[in-house]
Amino acid sequence: MGERKGVNKYYPPDFDPAKHKSLDKYRGTHPLRERARKLHMGILIIRFEMPYNIWCGGCNSHIGMGVRYNAEKSKVGMYYTTPIYKFRMKCHLCDNHFEIKTDPQNHDYVIISGARRKEQRWDPKENEQIVPEDKASQKKLATDAMYKLEHGVDDKAKIKATIPSLRQIEQIQSQYKDDYMLNKLARQKFRGEKKSIKRAQDADNALLARSSLDIELVEENPEDVRLAGLMKYSITESYEEKQKQKREEIEARPLFQAKSPTTTATSPTDIKQLTNKDTSHALEIKKKLGIGSRTHSSPFSTATVAKRSNVNFGIVRKDKTMNDTNEKIHDKSASSLNSNDDDQCSDTVIQTKNALNCLISSYAESDSSGSDV
């Protein structure tokens, strides 16, 4: 700070070093500027740091140790050759002022007014700390031989009392003397525990991967193992077996299944019984219609495909015999179905008749269109 202010100073033309001595005397100011504004009263403004925790007497707020204030420093007395200073400062939370002075005798600070100290002091003897001798005892030791002898006896008794604790400390230090072996044993134990933890973690991760789970596993408990051994699980059908059973039920189901309003098939045996009844009704109707053996040619047969593959240009003669047979079959099936309307009353037979009627009519139309070509 002094170097920064000691360079690049402006000296006016009327400055006389022999007369003014310095620029401060030339300007009539103090080197400390505003800090020395009360110097004529014996007060110097300094930066004071709080030595301990206190409570403000005005606002009753806590002020921690180390908080800094602009304090007015003044000399109030002497302790032998050591001056005693007083510091007056204003609380930063209220308008209260508190004063603190030095205590060279006890190496401490004393609050005069405006605040109270937060008691955090203790006796060094209770904490088994080394207590320095005060000046009175030191003076007495130097002048009184009898007091010095008594003091020496007390010191010897203290030494004998501390010998067992010293031996214990030496024994503990001898145990930890070989640092290399102790470090080696500690690292071996650490490596073993680390490997065991890693094995357990790998086993847990493998179990979670097989089970497709994302949960945190806990350590195995013997009670849980015992309870798990007592539990038994029943064998259930697999997914493939269930799918196979569904396919068999679908294959056994008739193409034109009757929906009865009174009875519903719930089990596979009921479905098979209904299927057998429907197929028997269909066979009886086919016998009555006379279409048990296919006498007419199928539109999907090889002969028909071969016949249609031959391309003829020009006028082609219609096949009258095919049209006549189809008309006869259609008339015969229609007459037989009309005659049996009074005999068959069940919903299954009626639906089967309608389905056969639609198939025969569509088949006749396909034959007629093929013959036209």
**Reading side by side through the largest sheet, how are the strands ordered?**
1-4-5-6-7
Stretches with pLDDT under 50, minimum 5 residues: 261-266, 293-299, 301-316, 337-345, 369-373
Radius of gyration over C-alpha positions, nearest whole angstrom:
60 Å
Taking the alpha carbons of the first and last residues, their distance comes to: 120 Å
| Largest beta-sheet details | 5 strands, antiparallel
What percentage of residues falls in helices of 4 or more residues? 40-55%
Structural class label: alpha+beta
Shape: elongated
Strand content: 5-15%
Total of DSSP H or I helical runs spanning 4+ residues: 12
Q: How many β strands by DSSP?
A: 8
Q: What pattern of helices and strands is seen along the backbone? A: HHHEEEEEEEEHHHHHHHHH
Mean pLDDT over the residues: 75
Describe the protein's architecture and organization.
- By secondary structure, the protein is α+β, with helices and mostly antiparallel strands.
- It contains twelve helices and eight strands.
- 50% of the residues lie in helices and 13% in strands.
- The C terminus is likely disordered.
- It has a five-stranded antiparallel β-sheet, with no helix packed on it.
- β4 and β5 form a beta hairpin.
